Amino acid sequence: MRRISHMSRIEPANASGYLGLFSAQDFRLTTGAGADGPTIASARWYFREQTIAVAKDPSKVAGFARGLRTFDDVRAWAMAHSSVAPPDYPPLIWVGAPEVARNARIASTGTTLLTAHGAPFRIVPKIAMNRSYYDASSVEFFRRRSVTARGSNSPEAFVIRSMWPEDFRLGPRAPPLRAMPTDATPAAALRTLMREELRGGARAPFAAWTLWQRPNASFDWTGRAVLAFIVNGAQGDDDEAHGGHFALVTGRIAADGAIGDWLVNNFYSLDVESEKGIIASPVPLDSYIGDLNSGQNWYRPSTMLVAVLSNARSAALVQSALGRVYNQFYRHQLGYYHPTGNCTSFSIDTLRALGWDVPARGATSRTLAWLGLPYVAVKHASLQQAATIFDYLTVDQTRLLPAVAVEDIFASLTALIRERGDGTATPFSLVKGQVIGTLAQMLADDIDALAFLRLPQFPSSRAFGDAAAISVREAQARVPQNPRDAQIIPLPPRPFPEMLRDADLLPRRMRPSDFALGVWGALLLIGVPVLVRRWWARRSRRV
Question: Domain spans of the chain?
Answer without folding.
Answer: 9-357+401-411+448-480
